[in-house]
Each structure stands twice: as C-alpha cells, then as structure tokens.
TrEMBL record:
One of its GO terms (biological process) is anaerobic cobalamin biosynthetic process. PANTHER family: COBALT-PRECORRIN-5B C(1)-METHYLTRANSFERASE (PTHR35863). Pfam families: CbiD, CbiJ. GO terms for molecular function: cobalt-precorrin-5B C1-methyltransferase activity; precorrin-6A reductase activity. It comes from Bacteroides helcogenes (strain ATCC 35417 / DSM 20613 / JCM 6297 / CCUG 15421 / P 36-108). Keywords: Cobalamin biosynthesis, Methyltransferase, S-adenosyl-L-methionine, Transferase. It catalyses: Co-precorrin-5B + S-adenosyl-L-methionine = Co-precorrin-6A + S-adenosyl-L-homocysteine. Pathway: Cofactor biosynthesis; adenosylcobalamin biosynthesis; cob(II)yrinate a,c-diamide from sirohydrochlorin (anaerobic route): step 6/10. NCBIfam families: cbiD. Belongs to the CbiD family. This is Cobalt-precorrin-5B C(1)-methyltransferase. InterPro entries: CbiD, CbiD_sf, Precorrin-6x_reduct. SUPFAM superfamilies: CbiD-like. The keyword S-adenosyl-L-methionine applies.
Length: 633
C-alpha cells in the first residue's frame, strides 16, 4: 500500500498517476479544502505527526511514502524523514520544477529572517507579500515596524481565520483569484517591492517575477528549504510512475519504458561528460535527462569501455571523440527496439588559433549538430516533416538531445566553443529490424526512425492497457462530468482541452489505438455523452472500419481516401497527390481549402457509421483535429 502526503498540484498529479494502477492507496491532506477526485484512492484529512504516521503505516501495511507536499512544508518533510529512518519505508519526494535562479534581478533570501533583514536594509516602505497566510506571523517584525505590508491569501474562511488569529489588519488583506493577471494587484497597490517564495513553476513563481519586472517592482525571494538526501526525487508524472514501478514493482501491472530518443539523449550526455571530464572524476552510472514536458528522469548508461581518442582533420583541426551506450528499455510495451544498444558518438574539433565567437545568449552558446549513423534510417520520400536525405530523427527527440547536451555543458562550466559539436546517433542492428516495420513503405530506408514525442513509452498494446482504459473511464464517470472526452494521446488531448476548457481533468481519457474497445467500455458504463477526438492518421483508418488503428495492424488505404476526396469534389490533380502522399497528415496540405470542410465532414460521417453502433444509448460527437489544432465537427 502507498500513502501520499499531498494538498498541492503535485498531490493531484500523484493521485492521477496512481489511479492508473487501479489499486487502492491513501491520500492525506492537512485540511479538507482541496477537491480531489478519488476512485481507488482513500482520502485522509488532518495533521499527522511522526508517531501517528508510523502507527498508520504499520496498521495499513504501507510500503511506500510519497511526499507531494508544498516545498515550504518543512515540518512535514522532517517528519517523513524521521518516519522513513525509523520504519525503513522509502520516501519518494515529488518535487516541483524550479526555474534557474536569477541572481541579477532577484534578491535571494535564505529564510524569513534573512528576508526581513534585507527588506529593512533596503528601506522598503511598501511591500506586497505573496507568501501566503502562514507567513504573516513570520514577518511580524516587518508589518509591525516601518514597512507597510499587504498580504495576498487564499479566499477561504480558514485563511481569514488564521490571519485574524495572527492579529493582522483585515484592510491590508487581498485575496487570490484563480487565473487573475498577477499585474492587477501590483498595479492597484503600487508596492515598492514584492516578497515571494521559491515555489516553482506550478506555484506561479515565473508569472509573479515577470509581472513585477514589467512594472519595475523590486523582487525578494525566499529560497526553498533543503529536504532529505535520503529521499528519492522526481519532478513529474513520468518520473513518479517509474520510481513507483522501481520501489513497488507489483503496483502497476504494466511498466513504462524509455523512447529511443531519451536513450539517445542520455548516451549523448554521457559521451559529452566523458570528453570534458578533465578532472578524471568517477563516471555516474546514470544521467538525468529533461523530457519534453520539462521533468527530469534518471537514465542508466552502460559502463564506459571506450577511451577518448583524437584524429587530425584535413584542415589541421584536432578532433576529439568518444562514444557512450544506453540499452533501450521499453518497459512492458512490445517495442521492436527493446534491449538494443543506442549509441551516441560525440566529436568536437579544436583549432588552437581559432578566434572565440562573440558572446551569445545562453541558449545559443553551443553549436550542436545531430546526425544519424548505423541503424538510423534515411528519409527518401516527402511527408514526414524531414528533409529528403536527412536521418529519420524527428524534431522533438533531436531537440531533446541538443538541449540536454547544452544543459550539461553549462553545468560543467564549458565555455562557448567556436566549432560545432557533432553528435552521431547509432542503433547497431537497426537496419535489419527496420525491415520488420512499416518504415520501408514510408520511405525510411536503412534503419529505424526516432519519432517519440514524450520521451516515455507507455505500454499500449496489451489487455492490461485496455484494463487501464476501463479504470480511467470509471474515474471519469465518478467525476460527474457532463460528458467524457477520449483521445489518442497528449497531442490531441491538448487541443481538445482547449476546446472544452471547463471539463475536469478526469474527463479526458486516452484510448491509444483501442477505439473500439474504448467505445465498448463507454457503452458498458452507460455513458450518456462521449466525444471522440481524432487526428487525421487515425481518422482515415477508422473511417474505413478499423477500430484498432495501430500501424502494426492496419495502414491507410489511399484508394479509400481518394473515394472520399472525389465525393468532396476534389479534382484529378488532388487525387493524384493523394496517391503520391506518404503520410496521412499531408492531406491537410493536399486537399484544397475550399474542399476541406466537405472532405472532413465525409470523413467524420464514415467514422460515425462505424462507431455509433458501439454506443447505441449514448450521444457520440467526433472531432477531427488538424496538425495545428483546428477542429472540424
């Protein structure tokens, strides 16, 4: 059993992540004001000290603690550290994502006492404190002194009562309203400075800083307190799930994996580290990689068996290079590349007389080129969004490789370099296994493609995933949403969430490729209203009757698509372009703008024809989503 200590945005994410397992767990908050939908989780309210938590863990057989509390909940962090030490229960600390500290524009304070000292030293006469109601008593020396302080607190009775108990004048209280522009209150009060906590991206830290800077208001920020080195740290949903899978292997029926792009990024970072490890430090067994969603996960890297070597190029440059390897772990997804080596070779030319380039912004400090090597396919046909002749490495994994290498170069203090860093990604054996995929039909020749978008492989192709869809749908039903929205994944969900901004997060469910199974589940659960979101690639398959749209099961039928285009009034030129296209998403450029509406409506009608019988007692709405997020209904 797992116990989450929450009450924050991270607590909500932890609940959502654990709900995917379909197994019971406990979610504890200090008060009862946070609204969290629990289907398998069990809600607990009230403060628990060390002994109470220890007793609870024994009584309920708790094997794992998840600390998803606020970064400044110091007492709780210390309590969990003590519980972990005395009860031998591991703790996962679900930390927030924190932006890099801006030492130039922000006055950083070690704690509240230091903040008081700095604010007094700087003779701040009017202060807006965005540090919450709990901080009123900690800043008493300010607001009872010569500094007029305004506090913004949550608009709820418990916050007002606590402010009153601390003796704070009500006329200087202001209330937080969700979604309100941070500049509004600052423009109303005109403070000389604001005081904020290092509360991370999810705590609105960046928005507060930006608003103050735009208005010319000084910024004082209290550094987040340090937590235990014995905790296992994660800062996102993927890292949390993987850490739970590692700590309690049986909690999730299926385990997640890493995309080839994530493996390539880790290998590239490791090789870069090897080149610049002039101090000959011991090489880490794993390297942290930032995923496209901003969270960081550790990736194991194979021990270094290569040595740094150099060559002399034709122009006299010395080229230093080394390779590093990651073994692909796809989790429980039947990925054809699972267990294969993903190798990154990093080569850096040095010329002793080369002038340094002009100083560049930090994000442009390094010139990095990502190439494809052995086992990486080459693009030979249009439609994949990559240049002909280019390696089959999509924009997202390419950027992930570049950004992570830049991050490590910066961390290691490596200055900007006049020559490009060349990273060559290889997958030995990739050419042979690619023959068992659809890559040759898509014009990807000579190897596999690296196309991931999230950095994480979720196990789609199994009965267990269908079971997880069922559990997610049950949670969605319990949310009492007006209707439930199903989509294939993160990209389409992002656009649909913007289309339905008022629906709760639980109302959105991923079907992966299992459209038919998901509709059957919706019918079983007697859902009155369901929205199905489709990108064009799945839509053209579903329109022909394929209720499982996985590329391993079915490919698009160009003859069928031509028939629909013909019915929509498209001419022979358009039909010829359809015959020549490589990917379904090319249709958005091929179909003339004046025919798009008719074509989309016909496609949706065909999809409705195959889906409606599976939901006979419910209302089904189908949305066709373009690559840019435009929606046809």
């Amino acid at each position: 059993m797992i116990l989450i200590l929450g009450g924050t945005t991270e607590g909500r994410i932890a609940v959502k992540t654990l709900e995917e397992a379909g197994k019971p767990f406990y979610y504890s908050t200090k008060g009862d004001e946070q609204e969290v939908l629990l289907h398998n989780g069990i809600r607990l309210n009230g403060t628990m000290g060390t002994e109470k938590i220890k007793e609870f863990c024994v009584r309920h057989n708790i094997k794992l603690l998840i600390d998803a509390a606020h970064p400044f909940a110091e007492q709780l962090h210390k309590t969990l550290e003590q519980v972990s030490r005395e009860s031998d229960i591991p703790v996962i600390r679900f930390e927030r994502i924190f932006p890099e500290r801006d030492e130039k524009h922000i006055n950083w304070c070690k704690d509240y006492d230091d903040a008081i000292s700095q604010i007094k030293t700087n003779r701040i006469s009017t202060l807006l404190a965005l540090t919450g109601v709990q901080s009123i008593s900690k800043l008493t020396l300010l607001w009872k002194g010569n500094t007029r302080c305004y506090f913004r607190i949550l608009d709820r009775d418990s916050s007002r009562e606590l402010a009153n108990k601390q003796g704070y004048p009500e006329e200087y209280l202001h209330y937080y309203h969700y979604g309100e522009d941070e500049r509004k209150l600052m423009q109303q009060i005109h403070p000389e400075a604001i005081l904020i906590k290092e509360s991370g991206i999810s705590g609105g830290f960046c928005e507060k800083v930006k608003a103050a800077q735009e208005l010319g208001i000084r910024i004082f920020a209290i550094c987040r307190p340090k937590t235990s080195d014995n905790f296992h740290y994660v800062n996102g949903e993927h890292g949390l799930r993987r850490m739970v899978e590692k700590s309690l292997p049986d909690f999730f029926t299926l385990h997640s994996g890493l995309t080839t792009g994530t493996c390539a990024a880790a290998a590239a970072v490791a090789a870069t580290w090897d080149i610049f490890n002039t101090a000959l430090k011991k090489r880490p067994s794993e390297f942290s990689i930032v995923l496209p969603n901003g969270e960081t996960i550790p990736v194991p890297v194979e021990p270094q068996r290569n040595t740094l070597h150099s060559n002399i190029s034709k122009n006299g440059d010395s080229i230093f290079e080394i390779s590093a390897t990651v073994i692909k772990d796809a989790g429980d997804d039947p990925d054809i590349t699972n267990g294969m080596k993903v190798v990154a070779n990093v080569a850096i030319p040095f010329h002793p007389n080369a002038p340094l380039p002009p100083k560049l912004p930090s994000q442009q400090r390094y010139d990095i080129t990502v190439c494809g090597g052995e086992g990486i396919g080459i693009i030979t046909m249009p439609g994949l969004g990559l240049d002909l002749g280019a390696p089959a490495i999509n924009a997202t994994p390419r950027k992930m490789i570049e950004d992570n290498v830049k991050r490590y170069l910066k961390q290691m203090g490596i200055p900007q370099h006049p020559n490009p860093i060349v990273i060559t990604i290889s997958v030995p054996g990739g050419e042979e296994i690619a023959k068992r995929t659809f890559n040759p039909r898509l014009g990807i020749i000579g190897g596999i493609s690296i196309i991931g978008t999230s950095g994480i492989v979720k196990p789609f192709s199994s009965e267990a995933f269908v079971s997880s869809i069922h559990k997610s749908m049950e949670v969605a039903c319990a949310a009492n949403s007006p209707h439930i929205v199903i989509s294939s994944g993160a990209k389409s969900e992002k656009y649909i969430k913007a289309y339905y901004p008022d629906l709760p997060a639980q109302a959105f469910v991923h079907y992966g490729n299992f459209i038919g199974e998901t509709l059957n589940i919706a019918n079983e659960l007697k859902l009155p209203q369901l929205t199905l979101g489709l990108m064009i690639g799945k839509a053209v398959k579903l329109a022909e009757g394929s209720l499982d749209t996985h590329s391993k099961k079915v490919v698009m039928n160009k003859d069928f698509i031509q028939d629909i285009a013909r019915q929509a009034g498209c001419n022979e030129i358009t039909l010829t372009l359809i015959r020549q296209m490589n990917m379904a998403r090319e249709l958005w450029d091929i179909i003339p703008p004046d025919k798009l509406s008719a074509f989309s409506n016909l496609l949706i009608e065909h999809c409705q024809r195959h889906c409606t019988p599976l939901l006979p007692k419910g209302k089904l709405t189908i949305l066709l989503i373009t690559e840019n997020g435009n929606i046809y209904t």
